[in-house]
Amino acid sequence: FAAIVRGASTTCSNNGATTIACTLTAPTNGDALIAVIGTRGTSIGRVSSVTQTGATWVRAAQVANANGTTSEIWYALNISGASTGVTINLAASIKASAVIVEYSGIGSAGAIDKIASATGSSASPSTGTTATTAQANELWIGALDAIGSATYSTPTNSFARVASSASTGGSAGSRERSAFLERIVAATGAATTGATLSATAQWAGTIA
């Protein structure tokens, strides 16, 4: 079964730049790393790549709210000799934030089952809802990003909020805040989650 490696997760952000520099606790060989990344962007592809020695990063899902926020999920499986430094490369100089979490027990290939996404403007951001998953034992990851400095609470559908991260600098309205949500399940189903924001905001959400 998948299990979060507590103490081996990190949050990182920028003040408007072409990269985010993240530093992890020394990763364990064979584990998986998963990143939720949010940006102040208006179209998909805001993250061009994620680079790290000893890890091959792949995008799992992404979504853009044309009013100014994007959310992406990236992952690296079966890491070996992975460095503690992770660089998130952006397509432009933009405000962005990320949460990276290490997991044990994730398959070394074919890890993605179903994905979904949603966007909106409210105090109730959502990831959208996937089709029914294909296998019982899975790790479901939800990614949310919202414009401004509103905080997240009350994840839905039995998800836990692992962490959130926010870009810095400028006015509150120029920033964004991302949230990493997780649920480990033992039965198939339609994957979905969301949360409550402390204020109404433009948001984007995706799940894998």
Give a structural overview.
- The structure is a single chain.
- The chain has 208 residues and is an all-beta fold.
- It is built from no helices and 17 strands.
- The strands form four sheets. Strands 1-8-3-6-5-4-7-2 form an eight-stranded antiparallel beta sheet, with no helix packed on it.
- A hairpin with a 2-residue loop joins strand 4 and strand 5.
- It is globular.
- 49% of the residues are buried.
- The mean pLDDT is 95.
Number of strands: 17
- In terms of DSSP E residues, the strand content is over 45%
Strand order of the largest sheet: 1-8-3-6-5-4-7-2
Contiguous low-pLDDT stretches (5 residues minimum) are none
Helix content: under 10%
How are helices and strands ordered from N to C? EEEEEEEEEEEEEEEEE
Number of helices: 0
Shape: globular
Short structural description:
With 208 residues, this protein is an all-beta fold. 0% of the residues lie in helices and 62% in strands. The chain has an eight-stranded antiparallel β-sheet with strand order 1-8-3-6-5-4-7-2, with no helix packed on it. A five-stranded antiparallel β-sheet has the order 9-17-11-14-13, with no helix packed on it. Strands 10-15 form a two-stranded antiparallel ribbon.
